Amino acid sequence: MRITLVGSRHFGVTTLNMLREHGSVIVRVVVADADDRLADAARAAGIEVVVQAEPKLVVASEIAANTDLIITAHSHARISKEALAVARFGGIGYHPSLLPRHRGKAAVEWTIKEGDPIAGGTIYHLADRMDAGAIAAQDWCFVKKGETARQLWERALAPLGLKLLAEVIDYAIVHKALPAKPQDEEFATSAPSLSAH
Question: Cα–Cα distance between 46 and 32 in angstroms, integer?
């Protein structure tokens, strides 16, 4: 599986490492900031790095030729329709909530703020509307009493994202397609972003 990885920061690096260990070929890494730790990790691994011309948008020319799948990992950029069309299977991302619940930024913080007893993660198809594409995989975990958003992310949600990404890639290799189940809009929530980062 030939992957263009779009992302940043620690989760971008752990995703890069998981994909390489999983046997995927990362043909390019796309970042918003040339000094990001994901860019450093990719360069150290001999992987081509492209810096987005526009921090909030990834365009077709920034996706590597012959990409099978675009994966986003801690990216705040929208992947254009033209960019998605370059990749054989389009693109997927990980959202740390049980979509369609807690769409948008600060999903883990909203899980804590709302007092949700259960959290989860979703691999979803990248689409025009933020976090609204079809669901490729989803799983859940309990929220511990008194747990902070950072603790929940580090303990359960980041590892869950890596596991689900690997499962979806394996599915695509076997079935030559990505699983897709539309989100139920009746349960969609979207809240303004919190300043707790």
Answer: 19
